[in-house]
Amino acid sequence: MKELRYEFYIGAAPAAVWDCLVSPGKVSQIYYGSNIRSSFAEGEPLEYVGPGADGDETVHVYGTVLEYKPQETLRFTHKAGPSYVKDGEPYESVISWLLSPIGGCTKLTLIHDGWHPDDPSYAPSDSAWWQILSNTKTLAETGRTLDFGG
Questions:
Q1: Taking the complete model, does pTM exceed 0.90, yes or no?
Q2: Can you tell me whether residue 46 is helix, strand or coil?
Q3: What is the CATH number of domain 4-142?
Q4: Residue 73 CB neighbour total at 10 angstroms
């Protein structure tokens, strides 16, 4: 499968965009009520936990931190949480958040790659990333997120 790659230009400093990606109060606003849990040390676990099929502590995504450079790079492995996997082990892919200042704004690049050809989370990820990225841009620029309904 080809990589999922998105580039957004955000009218906010890298620090504000970074805050949306790693601060629990802001992450929950862009990730459907889920919070990020991690020490962010390379080699340590990372997970997104929030309301879902297994209650308020549903693990939606988990993995291992591969790279962490504040306001620049967050790269980690990605596996679907247990409630999303019917049989066997979840497939692993890699998510890379890359930030760079461009004039008075921030270029945010998201790359989701390393997909297994049979990974069923490819299509749902492609769909969800657009909302997550749009919410990240809106939150960093305005302090609020979009109303997608439902």
A1: yes
A2: strand
A3: 3.30.530.20
A4: 16
What strand order describes the sheet that includes 55-69?
4-10, 105-113, 93-102, 73-80, 55-69, 45-52, 35-38
What's the DSSP call for residue 125? H
Domain locations in the chain? 4-142
Q: Per-residue pLDDT tens for 27-41? A: 999 999 999 999 999
Residue type, 38: S
Q: What is the per-residue pLDDT across 46-76, written as a single tens digit (0 to 9) for each?
A: 999 999 988 999 999 999 999 999 999 999 9
Rg (CA), the chain: 15
Cα(104)–Cα(126) distance, integer angstroms: 29
Coil, strand or helix at 99: strand
Among the listed residues 141, 46, 49, the one whose alpha carbon sits nearest the alpha carbon of residue 95: 46
